[in-house]
Every structure is written in C-alpha cells, then in structure tokens.
Design brief:
The protein has 452 residues and is of the alpha/beta class. It has 20 helices and seven strands. The strands form two sheets. The chain has a five-stranded parallel β-sheet, with helices on both faces. A two-stranded parallel ribbon has the order 6-7. Helix 6 links the parallel strand 2 and strand 3. Helix 12 crosses helix 13 and helix 14 packs antiparallel against helix 15. The radius of gyration is 33 Å and the shape is elongated.
C-alpha cells in the first residue's frame, strides 16, 4: 500500500462511527455467540475443518452477523464480497456469482458472498443462488433478522446451516465498551475519560444486547464533552436515543411475544404476563388479537377451576371494542392479572380433544334409542324416546340412565379451585349413571314388529 493509499484508508477509518471501527478482526476478538462459536462448537469445528458451506445467520441487529462473516472470510482465506437484498437485482447477483466462478477457476480461491437482509430477496433471486451453492463455487452467508423458516426458500434452506444469534449479555456489552475506551488506534483511548460504574451499567442495560447501540451512545457522550470527560449516568442517559421497539406484527416478535404472554399466564406469573402485554402494546399489536387470545386461554388453561375467568376475558374483549386504546390497556391488564392468578385447569381442553379423537378415529356410536328425537310424527312408531327418564323427576336432578352407550370418561376435573367441587359432585353423579347402565335400565325397547 502506497503512502497515499494508507492515508486515504486512515481517513476513511477515522470517518467511520466507533461501532464500525471497533469491529473484531479475528475470532479471538469476537464477543458473544459461544453457543455455536465456542471451542468444540459446530461453527468453530466447521472453520477448523475448512468445510463451511452455506450458512444462514439469524438474529437481532448489533449481534455480530456482518462482523463474523468478514472474520470467516479471513479464516478461510476467501475473497469477501458483500451485497444487500434491499438493493441487489438478479443481474447484479449473476455478475457476483460469475466473478466468483472465474476467480475459483483461475486462482483456486473461494469467494464468501455475504448477503445482508436475506429475507428481502424474492423467490427468483434466491433461486439464482442455488447452482453456485450446490457446486461450492461460493460460501454463501445470508444474514436475516426474520425467521429463515418463514422467509427463505426450502431448497436453499435445506442446503444451509442455520445459526441463531442471541443478544449480547450485559457483561459482554460492558467488555466491548471498556475495550473501546482502551483502544488508542481504533477506539477512544486517546481521550481522557472517566466512566462511572452506574453509567456503564446503564449503557449495558439499555442497549438490549445491541453492541452498536451502546458504542454509539459512548461515542456521542465522549465527543460532545470537553476533556477530561466525566462519563456519568446523566451523560449516558442524554447520549442514548429513545429506544425503538423492534416488533413486527407479522414476524417472529409477534409469535414469540404472544407465546411468552400465554405461557406466563399459564405459569401463574402476573408480573411476566404484564411485561409481555406491555411489550406487545408498545409494539403496536392489535388489541383485538390480544383480547381473542385471552378469551381462548380462559377456557383452555383456567377452565372450570375458575369459571369467572372466561366471563372476565369476554368482558375485557367487549371493553376493548367499546373504549379502544389507550384506555383499554387497563381492561387487558385486569384480565391478564386475574387469569394469571386464577387456579388452572386444562381438563375441559383435554376432554374435548379426546372426544374428537374418538370421533375421528373410532367407530361412530349410534345415538341410544331412548335419547333419539321423538317430537315428530312417526318417531313413536320407531320407538324413539321409549324408556327415556326425565332427569328432573329424580333426586338431585340425576336420572340413572346411559347417555352414551359405552363407558367413557373424557372430563376429569382437577382438584384446583372450583373444579375441586365439581369433581366431588361428578363422582356422585357418575355412580348413579353407572348404576343405571349396569341395570340395563336404558336399553329402550326394540322396534315394533314390522317397523324399521
């Protein structure tokens, strides 16, 4: 590199934001994702064996997807080429792939093709990649913040290994912040900065696992103050932009958040349930969707352990229609906390599931003659209704007769909440029904001679 080129490169690096300048240059500098990049883990072993193949990096922003792709190119001594699905056309893709094929033929050097925002490629663009991926012409690394199982074509997905990136931990964010303050070449080491511990904690906590967010706030705070810089909690708060809630009503955030809300209520944790409710409301989730899910949950997971749960959930759904946001958040919060604290039972859910399975898979049971409709002309001649015992004529309102024709128990009440009382009541009822079945009191009468 000439003096002019070195000077130009230094100027370009100086113009880059701190997060870009501090990008790790080797696996040893890379922070996070130990679940697939640690010693003995899959990606580390693929690198060591020089058998990367096609990769899909899936995860939130600021977790190192682009950086790791660059490192992989260095580790495998491949030429790095980067493009974005937002700006690339099929023509540009074909040119990049042709260049990679020529390079491999002429020099034996592979190309690592990094495609950012991979989920934004349409089917035709994704299909263009298949031949070169299959032949090993390129090492394809696609980066996406969306679930690849929803957004990437099956043929391409089946030829790729998927690595899910997790947000960086608070300790990892702190490590990167300290590293940036100490690095005189690429970081802020040339500045006299005293970083307060509570300011460091704040940066780590508010970054949401996004290294770029923390380093950007650090750079703004340092460069906006005359030296020596006392980087206090107040300065940290002033340097952090208002948090943008990452939430896609058609993507992972939607499905994962509602799953977390439902499971928190089912697990009887009202605090977690309120957090996930707030997360979805702040993300702009449709309140009707939330209300419908609570109505379903009230029967699915609370059931007869607390029958009031369904009443309250339906009332909350009606209230959402009546008052709308922002006030209906109060109705949803009331329903969420009540359902979370209510005793739980899925006995009705299990019961209807077993009954429907019997209907689908077993022999369809005929309606017992004594239970068949007898209100139309000719029903009596068929014997319909003969032998039926009117329940209200018996003690306790229970007639000792058979209502199904076979021995089945689909509903098995739990010993929680109101359902415990139902269980005791049902035990007595089933004794009477069983007695009637054993006596054969409800077999009805055969059809009259000559009928049928």
């Amino acid at each position: 590199m000439s003096l002019f080129e070195a000077s130009e490169e230094a100027n370009r690096q100086q113009a880059q934001p701190l997060a870009a300048r501090m990008r790790p240059r080797s696996l040893e500098e890379f922070v996070g994702q130990e679940h697939f990049l640690g010693e003995g883990k899959l990606l580390r072993r693929l690198i060591q064996a020089d058998r990367l193949g096609s990769l899909m990096f899936y995860g939130p922003p600021g977790t190192g997807k682009t950086t790791l792709a660059r490192i992989l190119a260095n580790e495998t001594q491949s030429t790095f080429r980067q493009t974005s699905a937002v700006t690339s056309s099929v023509k540009e893709l074909r040119e990049l792939l042709g260049e990679a094929r020529d390079r491999l033929s002429a020099t034996g050097r592979k190309t690592l093709l990094f495609i950012d925002e991979m989920h934004r490629f349409n089917k035709a663009q994704q299909d263009v990649l298949l031949p070169e991926v299959e032949e090993g012409i390129v090492i394809l690394v696609g980066a996406t913040t969306e679930n690849p199982f929803f957004t990437i074509n099956s043929p391409l997905l089946s030829r790729s290994r998927i690595f899910q990136f997790e947000p960086l931990s608070n300790d990892q964010i702190k490590e990167l912040v300290r590293r940036a303050l100490a690095d005189r070449e690429r970081g802020l080491g040339q500045y006299d900065v005293h970083l307060h511990q509570d300011a460091l904690e704040f940066l780590a906590e508010t970054s949401d696992g996004d290294a770029r967010r923390a380093l950007s706030a650090l750079e703004v705070g340092v460069l906006s103050c005359p030296p020596p810089v006392e980087f206090t909690r107040q300065l940290a708060e002033e340097s952090v932009q208002r948090k943008a809630i990452q939430y896609d009503r058609l993507g992972d955030a939607h499905y994962d958040s509602i799953s977390a809300l439902i499971k928190s209520i089912r697990g009887s944790d009202p605090d977690a349930a309120l957090y996930w409710l707030a997360r979805m409301l702040e993300g702009g989730e449709d309140v009707r969707f939330l209300a419908r899910r609570l109505v379903i949950l009230a029967s699915e997971d609370v059931g007869n352990a607390d029958p009031q749960g369904l009443v309250l959930a339906v009332a909350a759904a009606q209230a959402c229609e009546l008052v709308g946001l922002p006030e209906c958040q109060l109705n949803l919060a009331q329903a969420v906390t009540y359902l979370a604290c209510a005793p739980k039972s899925n006995a009705a859910t299990i019961g209807i599931g077993e009954a429907r399975r019997d209907v689908r898979e077993g022999r369809l049971l005929p309606v017992p003659v004594h239970l068949r409709g007898s209100s139309y002309a000719g029903a009596k001649r068929l014997g319909h209704g003969k032998g039926y015992q009117y329940a209200h004529d018996y003690e306790g309102g229970v007639a000792p007769q058979d209502y199904l024709g076979v021995e089945r128990e689909y509903y098995r009440p739990t010993d929680r909440g109101f359902e415990a009382e139902l269980a005791k009541r049902l035990e007595a009822i089933r004794k009477q029904l069983r007695a009637g079945r054993e006596k054969g009191a409800n077999k009805g009468s055969p059809l009259p001679p000559g009928e049928g």
